[in-house]
Amino acid sequence: MDRLHTITSKVEAEMTLALGDIQVVRKSWDAPIDIVATGPMHYLELSLLPTPKIAHGCFPDDWGPHRFERIGEVFLLPARHKVRAKSSCLQQSSVVCRFQPDAVATWLDADLEWTEDRLLGSLDIANTSIRNLLFRMGEEIRNPGFGTDTMVELMAGQVAVELSRYLIGIDPNKAMGGLAPWRLKLIDERLAEEAPPSLGELANLCNLSVRHLTRAFRISRGRSIGVYMAEQRVDRAKRLLVSGMSVKAVAYAIGFTAPSNFAAAFQRATGETPRQYRQRATRHFDVPAVEVKPH
After folding, report:
1. Of the residues 131, 147, 174, the one at which a domain ends
2. In this predicted structure, what is the pLDDT of residue 152?
3. What pLDDT is attached to residue 172?
4. I need a surface site. Which of 29, 89, 99, 196 has the fewest CB within 10 A?
């Protein structure tokens, strides 16, 4: 963390909200990221490009300096909490929503206890409603029309409510019985391979029954293993699309029997067709570089 990073950054669209602000921003870095930051606002981000496999975060004041956990497609950095982020990501396009703590106190209660489990859950928010709302907000401010200001304000309030429900729902008393980190690592490594595994195969890999695996996985990752596998499948499709592989080849590579089925599933998951995603994701980064020094 002692070197200068060169970051190129461009705000594609932005809007000031009663609760804070929202931006669609593109960034690129000249080297893998290892930074420490603390912010006065709740920072919520949706990554629009596929996230790298090596993207982890740590709350050093709460966990100690050596514990790092996976950062997901949607993540929240709570206000006034120091976070250290490490990632092999060199470029990203994101929807970033920042909330003033006082403005969202009705929903994100200032007295909410940021337990170990809630901090862990904030790094990988497995909530389709929050993901879809952020995506819609980003599209709305990128392509404004009649009533955009009202629409985005309403969606921002809904995001705050959904976040509150999500965080309150993380009950530390129900967090016992999850999978050991080595088992989660085995599952992630298997899902990275081409042919999608069956539940039985994953259960055998972990030396568990299917019932035990599915219950413990939900506790560990906050969603069913089927939903998680679908997310990983879409994320792999994104990486292959960006690499230049044809839509047809990507469909077969991730286990679909027909490109049309893949295209429909991809659009349901992301709001874009595979071709629309690739066109946006491969847009050239042509903004001037700015020198920033990590803490």
Report:
1. 174
2. 96
3. 56
4. 196
Contact yes or no for 18/106 (Cβ under 8 A): no
> Domain of 69: which CATH number?
2.60.120.10
Q: Is the pLDDT of residue 285 over 60?
A: no
Structural domain of 192 = 181-281
Same domain, 156 and 253: no
Alpha carbon 40 to its chain's center: 21
Run of H or E residues at 271: none
Residue 190: pLDDT above 70?
Answer: yes
What is the per-residue pLDDT for 230? 86
pTM for the model stands at: 0.67
- Same structural domain, 87 and 156: yes
| CATH code: domain of residue 186 | 1.10.10.60
Q: What is the pLDDT of residues 230-270, one digit of tens each?
A: 888 888 888 888 888 899 999 988 888 888 999 998 988 88
| Residue carrying structure tokens 């990988």 | 124
Counting other chains too, the contacts that 268-273 makes at CB distance below 8 Å and 24 or more residues apart are 269/230, 269/231, 269/234, 270/135, 270/234, 270/238, 271/132, 271/135, 271/136, 271/139
Q: Dig out the tokens for 194 from the structure.
A: 């081409």
Domain end position, chosen among 174, 205, 239: 174
Task: Compute the half-sphere exposure of residue 7: CA atoms within 13 Å on the CB side of its CA.
Answer: 19
